[in-house]
Amino acid sequence: MGIIGDRLYVADISNVIVIDRNSGAILKKLEIEDGENLNDITVDASGIVYVSDSKTGKIYSIQNDVPSLYMEGMQGVNGLKASAKGLYILAKKSVLLADAGKNITKITDLPNGGDGVEEVGNGDLLVSEWLGNVFYVKANGEKEQLLDRKAEKKNTADIWYVQSTQTLYVPGFFGKTITAYRLVTKKN
Q1: With the C-alpha atoms ordered 80, 81, 86, 90, is the resulting torsion angle positive or negative?
Q2: Which pTM does this prediction carry?
């Protein structure tokens, strides 16, 4: 999901649904041509919506409610996060950054494949894997596992991080839970 003003954008397999946040009414359905498994949504500072399609390996952009192909050939694309640096992309096991010119830089690899990605605020990221892992990924590609919930069978899916409170929200997908964690960074 992504928010622009009073509008909530929600991925729904082959459409992006636009919902009025105040009334809950569906304003429109934006059909994504060739969309087969729309997954994650993010919104950049200028109001462009990006949505991944995990099945087709495509990323779409939506400007003024008009969808268009933004990028393709991103096998296993899932998590997206718009940033002042560009677009963070989780594709298969890779954590990538696409700049404004769509030049891709690989930041690191994950053991199983990424699902959710959030910025910590200093060039570092928090990245989840569906299986139940959450990693702290430094801007230089070093990573540290922060959470392993596989034994609990609480798949982590997409995550949400609030920089101002340093709070990470982690869904326990099959456990029907949301757990909040405070991110404490080490001082050197």
Answers
A1: negative
A2: 0.94
